[in-house]
Amino acid sequence: MKVSRRHVAVIGILIVATVGLAGTGAFSNMTLERSINLPIADDSNAQLGIAVECEHNDSVVVTTVTNRFDEEVGITIRSGNTKRTISGLAPEETAQRTIPAASAGTEVSVKATAGSVKVELQRDVPESCQ
User: Fold this and answer.
1) pLDDT, tens digit only, all 130 positions of the chain
2) What's the number of CA atoms in the CB half-sphere (13 Å) around residue 72?
3) Fold observed for domain 48-129
4) Spatial separation of the C-alpha atoms in residues 39 and 109, rounded to whole Å
5) Which of 52, 65, 79, 112 is most buried, by CB atoms within 10 Å?
6) Residue ranges with strand state E in the chain
7) Residue partners of 73: CB distance under 8 A and separation at least 6
8) Is 75 buried (19+), middle (13-18) or exposed (0-12) by CB count in 10 A?
9) How far apart are alpha carbons 98 and 49 in whole angstroms?
């Protein structure tokens, strides 16, 4: 039997069609479960150290923030309706902001931004300040 171009073309089309119908072995979605173990540091060793205390006969809530990142951070401190900011806190630098105890909520929220890293945490206001 003589093999012509036409026979080769038909065989090629059949092969391509068969592979197309059978699939390529790829997949369109998947589910993956992974566990992660992250170490948690206390405030004295964390990248952002936080202390919330009462001062001046418990009339003022003092929030102390220490930057342990390798770059400057911007800080926003909120409690109740009061907001305080710290701009450009340098590495290893510490700053304090006060909030009148009468306007303090039950917690102090601290947000820090250092480049693409964002940290947000809450600390309870000591009961004697509330």
Assistant:
1) 676 777 778 788 888 777 666 666 666 777 878 777 766 767 667 888 888 888 877 778 888 999 988 899 999 998 888 899 999 999 999 999 988 876 666 788 899 998 888 888 888 887 777 5
2) 6
3) Immunoglobulin-like (2.60.40)
4) 22
5) 79
6) 48-55, 60-67, 73-79, 82-89, 94-100, 107-114, 117-124
7) 48, 67, 89, 112, 113, 114
8) buried
9) 16
